[in-house]
Specification:
Layout lengths: L1 E5 L5 H8 L3 E7 L2 H10 L4 E4 L5 H12 L6 E4 L23 H9 L6 E7 L9 H12 L2 E9 L10 E9 L20 H5 L23 H7 L15 H8 L25 E2 L16 E2 L9 H7 L12 H10 L3 H16 L1
Parallel strand pairs: 1-2, 1-4, 2-3, 4-5, 8-9
Antiparallel strand pairs: 5-7, 6-7
Bound molecules: S-adenosylmethionine.
Length: about 350
């Protein structure tokens, strides 16, 4: 089955589909470096660097796909800033177009895709008093897609990270709506940080620039799975914190945050997620785009790009290109590939029926 990935980023969502046996034919984004990463990890896919708010671009995409016999599935993770549905919505605000672009492309295609999947933050459900969600649902209706939506919790699907995301799945001219995949794990056996990353070089004494080999054997099934297709550890370079910062981190207990610091320590950062140290036996906090507020469960440093990637369920053979800042952003923006995989498998079962 052929897949089009809109707002593809580095391709976390797509990678899950690829692993489930789909043919990801095209990824589209307007950030070059994310597309470079996408291409590197989806060797058989095309990438287009296009602004998806521009009508002519949508026509170009539809024409390209029509010439190849269309696609079966569209997956899309539009940025949530695109939902400017406040009272004074301006017609010429390009960002308004972003999620409509998904439906516009479906409409332009000669052969309608069998499924459209849209992923977003859970806040979208209540954004603008529920208007944003309603607009998406209306668009599914107008285009003859029977839809269902659900918030999926990543640890339930084997991802060692607390991450909740809202998914809409629409099926073209079907009678029965999509049923979301059942959880494969419950809270008693969620994968914790230690099981996810303890085999990676510690980087306590160096920044990891030279040393990029595994030094220990995998110690969990999760680590084995992640290492299966890779000989080396990439994207594993530490941040060189100052002694003052290291000293503050050292005072945060495992699983703790700024509230656990003695009075007068780390005062300049005291918001919700500040100075948060992961717990070795629990999934990590939601991986962000590189804000530097989260710390390794054991070492006095922020997690590397590779550690974040592991916690997002990217296997070690998935490489991130660009500067360290760009790599952190790509990882944090992504749908965990393992979550994408479980949705992809479930969709396959339904479409094959
Ligand atoms: C949340 S990320 C998608 C992550 C992706 N689904 C994944 O799993 O890796 C949203 C993406 O939309 C892209 N984007 C934002 N505005 C865009 C536009 N006007 N046209 C095309 N892409 C856009 C951003 O560059 C970003 O990579």
């Amino acid at each position: 089955m052929k897949v089009l990935d809109l707002f593809s980023g580095c391709g976390g969502f797509s990678y899950g589909f690829q692993e489930a046996g789909y043919d990801v034919v095209l990824g589209i984004d307007n950030e070059k470096i994310a597309l470079d990463t996408f291409k590197h990890n989806h060797k058989n896919s095309e990438v287009f660097n296009l602004d998806l708010s521009i009508e002519e671009n949508l026509q170009k995409i539809a024409l390209f796909l029509d010439n190849q016999g269309g696609v079966d599935v569209i997956i899309a993770g539009p940025p949530c800033q695109g939902f400017s549905l406040t009272g004074s919505r301006k017609e010429d605000d390009k960002r308004n177009e972003l999620f409509y672009s998904v439906f516009k492309i479906a409409k332009l295609l000669e052969k309608k895709p069998k499924a459209i999947i849209i992923e977003n933050v859970t806040g979208l459900a209540t954004l603008y008093k529920g208007k944003a969600k309603k607009e998406i649902e209306q668009s599914f209706d107008e285009n003859n897609y029977i839809y269902n939506s659900e918030v999926l919790y990543a640890p339930n699907y084997g991802v060692p990270q607390i991450r909740k995301r809202l998914f809409f799945v629409g099926l073209y001219k079907e009678d029965i709506a999509f049923k979301f995949p059942k959880a494969i794990l419950d809270k008693d056996n969620y994968i914790g940080c230690e099981d996810a990353i303890s085999d990676l070089p510690t980087l306590e004494d160096n920044l990891g620039i030279v040393e990029n080999s595994y030094i220990t054997k995998p110690t969990s099934q999760y680590q084995k799975n992640m290492r299966q297709k890779s000989k080396y550890v990439y994207n594993h370079i530490s941040v060189n914190h100052t002694e003052i910062v290291k000293n503050v981190i050292a005072q945060v207990p495992e699983g703790g945050n700024h509230k656990d610091l003695p009075k007068g320590v780390g005062e300049h950062r005291k918001f919700n997620e500040a100075w948060t140290r992961y717990h070795s036996q629990k999934p990590s906090k939601t991986i962000d785009t590189g804000h530097g507020n989260h710390f390794h469960y054991k070492f006095n440093r922020v997690p590397t790009v590779r550690e974040n990637a592991r916690l997002q369920s990217f296997p070690d053979n998935f490489l991130f290109l660009g500067t360290k800042t760009q790599q952190y952003r790509q990882v944090g923006n992504a749908v965990p590939p393992l979550l994408g995989y479980h949705i992809a498998i479930q969709l396959k079962k339904i479409l094959n029926k």
